[in-house]
Design brief:
Blueprint: H1 8-12, H2 19-34, H3 52-72, H4 98-119, H5 135-158, H6 168-176, H7 182-185, H8 189-196
Helix pairs in contact: 2-4, 2-5, 3-4, 3-5, 4-5, 5-6, 6-8
Protein name: Mycothiol-dependent maleylpyruvate isomerase metal-binding domain-containing protein
């Protein structure tokens, strides 16, 4: 019998998403980024419209935004930050710093989010448009951004799909995707995460053109 949504956390993984998961995921991405020449980052990042460089910057921006949400605990909206032209993306890495500098910023962003998650009690709540969330939820969202967009980046840099860090996909699926269909539960967690975020079609599972996670506390 296939697992029901309320049983998903137990079916996929018994443990929570932790600050160490955020650190390990960010170091996975940073280590891969640092191995490629600067010119390669102008390529398109997998299925997204951004370059590999802009996609990696987007990951940094998400890590900073989530760390600030957990630090400030706003309940009604994101903290009112904007770039110099009013844009939502506030994090940009100096291109002259090259892949090594980009890698350093990715690790630093992961450390900031991990530290804020570790500092807050489980009862803390902060706004996210996909549901008022707790520190673990923001850790899980940070890990998803790293894994999924990291896979996009590596696909653009190498033309092949990267192997995701072991065990993390199961934990973030359990935390953020309670509506995963029974068919997806039969997949390897990495494949299920790639499908759940609209990046593949699989037997019996057409590619998602619209999707979102559920950040709310359950």
């Amino acid at each position: 019998m296939s697992a029901q949504p309320e049983d998903l956390a137990t079916t996929l993984a018994p443990g929570p998403v932790t600050p160490d998961d955020v650190r390990a995921a960010s170091r996975w991405l940073a280590d891969g980024v640092a191995r490629h020449p600067d010119a390669a980052f102008d390529a398109q990042a997998g299925p997204v419209r951004w370059s590999c460089w802009a996609t990696a910057e987007h990951v940094v921006d998400d890590l900073l935004a989530y760390a600030l949400q957990v630090a400030g605990l706003p309940l009604l909206d994101y903290l009112p930050l904007a770039g110099p032209k009013g844009e939502d993306e506030i994090a940009h890495v100096k291109r002259e710093a090259g892949p090594a500098g980009l890698a350093e910023v990715i690790v630093a962003g992961g450390e900031l989010l991990a530290a804020q998650v570790a500092a807050r009690p489980p009862t803390a709540r902060a706004y996210h448009p996909y549901g008022l969330s707790d520190p673990e939820g923001f850790a899980a969202m940070g890990v998803v951004e790293i894994l999924v967009h990291g896979r996009d980046v590596f696909q653009g840099l190498t033309g092949t799909s990267a192997t995701l860090p072991e065990g993390m996909s199961a934990r973030v699926l359990a935390r953020l995707f309670p509506d995963l269909p029974p068919t997806a539960l039969d997949l390897a967690p990495d494949d299920a995460l790639v499908w759940a975020t609209g990046r593949s079609d699989l037997p019996g599972l057409p590619r998602r053109t619209r999707w979102r996670w559920d950040a709310s506390v359950r």
